[in-house]
């Protein structure tokens, strides 16, 4: 793609209210732009990363047999009255009236709607299990929106819901989603820990959170350094430095960013909203539900926190907006541009996503923008172009060397 | 994909309020489900078609050099005060207050937000042209939501915006989008006509609509039968049967479904919202804007109106949710299932999207569901399986014949 057409409004300075590295860099690199407190536009470079994360999620959830659908953001009050949450949910629930004065809310979560969608269809246990997911914009009127996409009022989530006949089947799906989440976050370049958690306003019997360790995380978690999953045990009464009674390791407390959560809902919604099936014994029983969320915009933010330096971003391989950034030093120099365009075309033909900085900007400003944007491989076409050579940088290794076109096509 | 996991809640009868063929069939075939008046859930089969349409749109707009981003649904009142539309827009604009009593609306269109996004960045004419698009859920509080997805209150749109220095550049982009639209609708299996139209609440200087001829269309249009683009002329004062003063053909009046529109906005938003650039002469001039919409959920609906019979759907090749539907007559018969699974695996390996009806349902009910769902090629695995043969139907041609696995793999 040509950078002149991409719209990447990089900034010299971060906005004054940006407190954390990811928020500062994502604004400066032209990934996002604030529209109102906690409400952002995803600009082309940032949205490309969002779509990569969504693709990974779809691939991993399709693998475990979940089906994608799309539920509405506008939800009528009557469904929330059925579950009892219209009165219980606080001011975080954004409410509005339509032109006929009927109450609606903007979905922060979709247990009610998904239950309405499946309950007419469910008659026999033979229709189970069902596993449905969606990728959608959610709304939550946070008291104090902060940290950019970390705690926003409009954000992108993947939410999924399972319907099973038995607790054992729920356990099976809970584990399938847990494994899929581990795979998803790993592919997004994130190291996560699983931590048991409160069920909160969602309700249900049991819940786990997927946490990315980070000094800007908002949750305090306790875990043992040598054991990834020890955090899944109840360590809440232990302190930094204590011995873990389960695995004997040393307890550590740290901050975490919650990027995903999974809940065993049980029959909370199926009972109140009358979603029942007839089992093999001919009895009407409420279906057993699970729900499973991933904060997609927050995953993008966590990845920036984990991988960026103060100078600029650096994207993990599977979610980078482009693989290669080609910088011709002087777009008026025919030798530079011929070599740059040949490389651009040849790499694109190999199916590699390439961005070429064809703007009439000074070299210094192109380098600064490129540092900010964090595309992992950079090819500078400049004074060595007359010898058919370019400067190639692998930013994962911080290595730069002179290479020919053939060297580069061989490398990829 | 296995049908038992897909969630396709087919219905024997259409809901009583469904007036038109597409609404009846889309509900009966388990593509959509109503949540409130004019508000629908897209179920897995319907959402697969939506994603196919989105893919086509992305491919065609990427070709003309437009970049994708995502703007928020929640828009603060101050932007709409700048453009003057907060007061002018009627009760179709859904309005709400946040917890701090600040006014917001749910975007029916995004001229204000996109102008806010680009105006800080635009300083020189050198930054132009810009062409940006998004695929997003929109909101409009219709007085009388009807015809399923045709006139909904929450719907999926592609909207695009161009920013240019001169009217001539706007004309170039307007034509690029017009050509891209023709390609998009053709790939979606739709025959469209271009009709000049009112600028309405969007405003601006000139507008055209892309119309699908249909008896359930809500707009009356006049055109000459022999000339696709004659509708682009002003025929509004002519009647059915008149001679066209431009091409001499016979004027026809018919109903049309509007699936796309393109507007020359001029400087309406850039002047009121102060989006200016410095031109080559050093003068500050407002940028010239265009905007370009496609109703994605409505395109799905129009495709069903144009292709379905009263018995069931029939999907055009590029937007079909699956290419092949495999129906093993008896899932307990080992011969049927071995052959069906071999076909399923072999076709999938060729990159073909296959749905296999692995449900323990009676054959009659499988056939009925399959007729409704409208996947173009059907393979029935039944009594001839013992001879290695299956019944193959090409529903575009209404042809059925006995074939071997090899015949089928050769055909695709």
Distance between the termini of chain A: 18 Å
- At the fourth level of CATH, the homologous superfamily of the largest domain in chain A is Bira Bifunctional Protein, Domain 2
Biggest interface reads:
A-B, 57 and 57 residues
Beta strand % of chain A: 25-35%
From the helix content, strand content and strand pairing of chain A, which structural class follows?
A: alpha+beta
- The CATH architecture of the largest domain in chain A can be given as 2-Layer Sandwich
Count of individual domains of chain A: 2
Q: In one word, what is the shape of chain A? A: elongated
Report the C-alpha radius of gyration of chain A, rounded: 25 Å
SS field, number of helical segments of chain A? 12
Assembly annotation: homodimer
Q: CATH class of the largest domain in chain A, anyone?
A: Alpha Beta
Q: How many E strands of chain A?
A: 20
The pLDDT mean of chain A sits at 92
Major pleated sheet of chain A = 8 strands, mixed
How would you characterize the overall build of this protein?
The structure is a homodimer of 412-residue chains. Chain A is α+β, with helices and mostly antiparallel strands and 412 residues long. Chain A folds into two domains: 3-307, 2-Layer Sandwich (BirA Bifunctional Protein, domain 2); 324-411, Rossmann fold (3-Layer(aba) Sandwich). Helix content of chain A is 30%, strand content 28%. Chain A has helices at residues 3-6, 21-28, 44-63, 77-83, 85-88, 111-119, 167-187, 268-272, 296-307, 334-349, 363-373, 405-411; strands at residues 32-36, 39-42, 67-68, 74-76, 94-97, 103-106, 130-139, 154-164, 192-196, 206-213, 219-224, 251-266, 276-278, 284-286, 288-295, 324-328, 354-356, 377-381, 389-394, 399-404. In chain A, strands 3, 7, 8, 9, 10, 11, 12 and 15 form an eight-stranded mixed β-sheet that branches. The longest helix of chain A has 21 residues, at 167-187. The two termini of chain A are 18 Å apart. Chains A and B meet through strand 1, strand 2, helix 3, strand 3 and strand 4 of A and strand 1, strand 2, helix 3, strand 3 and strand 4 of B.
């Amino acid at each position: 793609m040509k950078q002149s057409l991409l719209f990447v409004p990089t900034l010299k300075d971060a906005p004054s209210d940006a407190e954390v590295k990811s928020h500062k860099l994502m604004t400066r690199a032209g990934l996002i732009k604030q529209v109102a407190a906690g409400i952002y536009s995803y600009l082309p470079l940032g949205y490309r990363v969002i779509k990569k994360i969504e693709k990974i999620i779809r691939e991993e959830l399709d693998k475990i047999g979940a089906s994608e659908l799309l539920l509405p953001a506008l939800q009528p009050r009557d469904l929330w009255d059925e579950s009892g949450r219209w009165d219980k949910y606080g001011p975080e629930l954004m409410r509005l009236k339509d032109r006929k004065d009927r109450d609606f809310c903007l979905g922060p979560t979709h247990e009610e709607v998904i239950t309405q969608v499946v309950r007419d269809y469910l008659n026999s246990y033979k229709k189970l299990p069902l596993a449905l997911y969606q990728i959608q914009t959610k709304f939550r009127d946070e008291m104090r929106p902060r940290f950019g996409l970390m705690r926003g009022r409009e954000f992108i989530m993947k939410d999924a819901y399972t319907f099973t006949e038995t607790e054992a089947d729920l356990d099976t799906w809970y584990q399938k989603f847990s494994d899929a989440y581990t795979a998803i976050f790993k592919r997004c370049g994130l190291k996560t820990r699983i931590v048991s958690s409160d069920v909160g306003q969602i309700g249900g019997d049991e819940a786990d959170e997927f946490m990315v360790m980070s000094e800007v995380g908002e949750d305090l978690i306790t875990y043992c350094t040598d054991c990834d999953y020890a955090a899944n045990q109840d360590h809440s009464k232990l302190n930094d430095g204590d011995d873990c009674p389960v695995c004997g390791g040393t307890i550590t407390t740290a901050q975490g960013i919650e990027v995903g959560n999974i809940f065993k809902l049980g029959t909370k919604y199926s009972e109140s909203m009358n979603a029942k099936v007839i089992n093999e014994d001919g009895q009407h029983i409420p279906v057993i539900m699970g729900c499973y969320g991933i904060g997609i915009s927050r995953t993008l933010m966590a990845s920036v926190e984990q991988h960026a330096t103060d100078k600029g971003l650096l994207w993990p391989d599977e979610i980078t907006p482009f693989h290669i950034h080609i910088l011709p030093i002087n777009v008026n120099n025919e030798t530079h541009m011929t070599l740059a365009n040949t490389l651009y075309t040849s790499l694109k033909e190999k199916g590699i996503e390439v961005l070429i900085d064809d703007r009439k900007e000074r070299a210094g400003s192109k380098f600064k923008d490129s540092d900010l944007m964090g595309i992992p491989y950079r090819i500078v076409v400049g004074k060595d172009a007359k010898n058919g050579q370019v400067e190639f940088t692998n930013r994962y290794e911080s290595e730069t060397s002179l290479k020919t076109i053939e060297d580069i096509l061989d490398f990829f």
